[in-house]
Amino acid sequence: MNKITILAIESSCDDTSAAVIQDTFLLSNVVAGQEVHKIYGGVVPELASRAHQQNIVPVVDTAIRQANIALTDISAIAFTRGPGLMGSLLVGTSFAKALALTNNIPLIEVNHLHGHILSHFIKEKDKDNIIPDFPFLNLLVSGGHTQIVVVNDFYNMEIIGQTIDDAAGEAFDKCAKVLGLGYPGGPVIDKLASQGNHLKFKFAKPNVSELNFSFSGLKTSFLYFLQDKMKENPNFIQENICDLAASLQHTIIEILADKIIQAVKLTNIKKIAIGGGVAANSGLRNRITEICQKYKWTAFIPQRKFTTDNAAMIAITGYYKYINQDFVNQDIAPIARMKF
Q: How far is CA 219 from CA 4, 94, 186, 205, in A?
């Protein structure tokens, strides 16, 4: 039986990535970041798309070389169609289409969010490779999305809860910016939180119905809280930075944790996976692990390298779409606000 080898390209935001997966096993996963955005406090779309144009050829070439394969070994090329920044998506989509057309290779489009969820099925040689069985709940938390998804199989997924305004990752980054911590702020808050008292300051949790989330109010209340305290003491942030980070992180994580507990009670599905960039947060990883140990549920915590944007998750999704012969034509176009 011929091996199924998937070359994948991910370019939804500011990371250019290419990966090769063969029969569910990862052969290579190359990511080129873009430091230029830090000075602007966030991703600048035009700069991101230009950097993708510079990075995509060497990144794809490196991924193929590291995998020790030839173009003739590739069964299909998978690429991120959306959601994401349109300029960035166009670079990845155009390159994938051109490479597929030139070499007569089938083309597979992948929803970026599906990739985050199916990242749990990436296997690596000489590792335990513990993967969830269906159905399971996935808490998908990133800078642009916060969702609870029932994953019935590789093709059947249902959102049962999502943010009604801002995402958890955006709350981390925006609050970090107010604290003067730069971009991306989430990892900095995580580091500072480990040195602080998470019970020092109390921030209100939103009262949102069912399994939905809201983080816009938390961001606003956090800003007003700081403004009031700075009037009393101009050095308040500097003197309390670790406790502020810990208290903020604790509040966001408890909002997420409360909803996932509700989701298990509603669905009776006791297998919990997390995914997306915020799944790299140590506080969230520890809290989900604690909850599952307390209630005797099963937790699936991905490696940090598979939580942020990467092509390995696009490749594994492409692999299962290849099994289903789910190919697209050359007239395919990216979609910035692609539905789940």
A: 46, 37, 14, 11
